Amino acid sequence: MKRLIVVRHAKATHRPGFADIERPLTGRGRRDARAAGEWLLHQRLIPELVLCSTSRRTRQTWDHLAAALAAGRNIEVQYDPQLYLGDEDDVLDAVGATPGDVQTLMIVGHNPSMQQVAAGLTGEGDLGFPTTAIAVIDLGSWARLVPGAGSAHAFWTPARAAS
User: Fold this and answer.
1) What is the C-alpha separation between 161 and 129, in angstroms, rounded?
2) Which residues contact 117 (CB under 8 A, 6 or more apart)?
3) What is the pLDDT of residues 112-143, one digit of tens each?
4) Could you tell me the fold of the domain covering 2-162?
5) How far, CA to CA in Å, does 57 sit from each of 64, 123, 130, 142?
6) What is the rounded distance in angstroms from the CA atom of residue 103 to the CA atom of residue 2?
7) Is the pTM of this model over 0.90?
8) CA-wise closest residue to 50 among 25, 75, 81
9) Which of 44, 53, 110, 157 has the lowest tally of Cβ within 10 angstroms?
10) Residue 9 in contact with residue 50, Cβ under 8 Å?
11) Interval 47-68: pLDDT, tens
């Protein structure tokens, strides 16, 4: 079994003066990303490989997740510019190229593609996917990524954590 962890970046600023790719996380975004990392660690959902968009907010989201997850672990991270503006097909292509020996893959990216990937693979079309949302999906293979190919293992959002 393969496990895909789909992460939408944490809350980023919308203040003027930043090119979209350079928008940093807000204070809330940093807190949510740290909480997400703690949740993943508590659930023992540790990726072997991370595919991350090259935007500042996704890189910062990964940095906060890694603070909890990477301590004493060797987690390979690949920053992929195609994940910045890529659509659902681009994301699925990146996931589909994952080496077969990787059991747990994390992808850190943007909406709408993160929501589309999670909803498409699990068949949950009405899946809400706010900032810092995490969908954990069990798959049979990285190569057979068709609609409904996976099953939802877990789902986390900052709002669920607060309730």
Assistant:
1) 14
2) 6, 88, 91, 92, 95, 107
3) 999 999 999 998 888 889 999 999 999 999 98
4) Rossmann fold (3.40.50)
5) 11, 28, 14, 26
6) 5
7) yes
8) 75
9) 44
10) no
11) 999 999 999 999 999 999 999 9
Q: How many CB atoms lie within 10 A of CB 62?
A: 26
Any long-range contacts for 9-14 (C-beta under 8 Å, 24+ apart)?
9/53, 9/55, 9/57, 9/58, 9/60, 9/61, 9/108, 9/109, 9/110, 9/131, 9/132, 10/36, 10/57, 10/60, 10/61, 10/64, 10/131, 10/132, 11/131, 11/132, 12/56, 12/57, 12/131
Which stretch of DSSP H or E encloses residue 70? none
Distance separating alpha carbons of residues 157 and 132, to the nearest angstrom: 6
